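Lecture notes, part 5. Sequence design as translation. It can be helpful to think of inverse folding as translation between two languages: the language of shapes and the language of residues. The source text, in structure tokens, appears below.
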């Protein structure tokens, strides 16, 4: 019984690409995807009571990567005084970013600054002297003090960042590790493509469509979203991007931030959805994107006879 199932999953690669779909609003396209998902039966789900929402290829194609505006980057915060480093005894753990003896269970404070691409993104010194520079980590957190004089880029990652990145480093140039941290934080691992984020402590008082729209508006700013799954009883969501660089940017930019309900969200790495239906949708979208890219480059020859 497993062979026909495998044949059905592998048969998606033999399908031809669908006709070109007109560009739609991401929220409307995602609403259409939810309506199509709700019409199917729930026999695929073996856990929980809420059906995951998977973005279709139409929803993915309706989005676009952020574009760097042609203007100088602005200074996000003014440095009034140099902060004094606190004295600690012992060694500093670069894995957990804590000094020995610090409380590991202390809740992180709310982020005091936030990056807004509409007003903060712009050209820096790196765009003229070193176009291959990484993105500024302080810019992503919303507190870069150099602005246009920064030696790193002030923009959201694009498709070139995805192709130029290497596995041992993230989009900010930080080292990745062989495995995830125990708390699923940090820079992630090079053994898998980290594209899915866990978003905890979200306010689930509004209806589920409103929660999905809120996540689309806040997390869609950093890149193209592939799927959004909300678990309303648990107050969490799983957000998957099409590019790893976008997920890394969103994780840093949205850590300990507030959404529309003034909550303090917790953003960590997450494993891929083990649901077979989610894996089939992921394979189908990847196959269709590959066929579309080959057809665009003129390397796809279909036998119409």
């Amino acid at each position: 019984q497993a062979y026909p199932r495998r044949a059905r999953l592998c048969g998606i690669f033999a399908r031809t690409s669908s006709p070109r779909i007109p560009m739609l609003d991401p929220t409307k396209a995602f609403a259409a995807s939810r309506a199509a998902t709700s019409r199917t039966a729930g026999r695929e789900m073996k856990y929980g009571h809420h059906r995951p929402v998977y973005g279709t290829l139409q929803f993915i194609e309706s989005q676009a990567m952020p574009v760097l505006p042609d203007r100088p980057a602005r200074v996000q915060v003014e440095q009034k005084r140099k902060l004094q480093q606190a004295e600690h005894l012992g060694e500093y753990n670069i894995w957990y970013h804590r000094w020995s003896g610090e409380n590991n269970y202390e809740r992180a404070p709310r982020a005091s600054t936030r990056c807004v691409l509409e007003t903060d993104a712009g050209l820096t010194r790196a765009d003229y002297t070193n176009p291959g520079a990484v993105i500024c980590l302080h810019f992503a957190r919303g507190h870069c003090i150099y602005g246009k004089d920064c030696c790193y880029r002030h923009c959201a990652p694009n498709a070139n960042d995805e192709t130029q990145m290497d596995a041992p480093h993230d989009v900010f140039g930080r080292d990745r590790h062989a495995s995830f941290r125990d708390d699923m934080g940090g820079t992630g691992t090079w053994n898998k493509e980290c594209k899915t984020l866990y978003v905890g402590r979200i306010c689930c008082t509004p209806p589920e469509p409103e929660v999905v729209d809120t996540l689309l508006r806040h997390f869609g700013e950093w890149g193209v979203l592939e799927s959004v799954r909300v678990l309303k009883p648990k107050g969490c969501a799983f957000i998957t991007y099409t590019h790893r660089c976008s997920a890394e940017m969103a994780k840093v930019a949205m850590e300990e931030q507030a959404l529309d309900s003034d909550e303090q969200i917790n953003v960590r790495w997450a494993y891929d959805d083990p649901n077979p239906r989610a894996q089939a949708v992921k394979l189908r979208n990847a196959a269709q994107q590959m066929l579309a890219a080959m057809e665009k480059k003129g390397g796809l020859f279909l036998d119409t006879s």
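The translated text above is only one of many valid answers, since several sequences can fold into similar shapes. The radius of gyration is 21 Å.
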